[in-house]
Description:
This protein has 2 helices and 6 strands, in the order αβαβββββ. The chain has a domain at 25-35 and 63-132. It is an alpha+beta fold. The strands form 2 sheets. Strands 1-6-5-4 form a 4-stranded mixed beta sheet. It has a two-stranded antiparallel sheet with strand order 2-3.
Amino acid sequence: xxxxxxxxxxxxxxxxxxxxxxxxxxxxxxxxxxxxxxxxxxxxxxxxxxxxxxxxxxxxxxxxxxxxxxxxxxxxxxxxxxxxxxxxxxxxxxxxxxxxxxxxxxxxxxxxxxxxxxxxxxxxxxxxxxxxx
Length: 133
């Protein structure tokens, strides 16, 4: 049974880190993929069984849907965050666990969920990495 009113899993250490020795960030960025999370979608995602959003989940902005061009924007932000070193030092199976990207005054956090796949969400300024403050 899930705990009600779950908090987001933001990293405790909000600081950019270094990749493990010998890691090619461009190759990691090319292999990373933004897939989103069904728990936060109000519409089905291609290739996934639609279960609907979790009852207490915040819903993603419908403008960022896999069937719209903006889905490629999310993928680009993930890739850019990795290539620019905007990730925490913790790595998970060859990928940074947390990747940040800032677009204007809005910042986003992507979390590695396995196999190079990420889901993400906008974050508030108090959740920004120290490197941006």
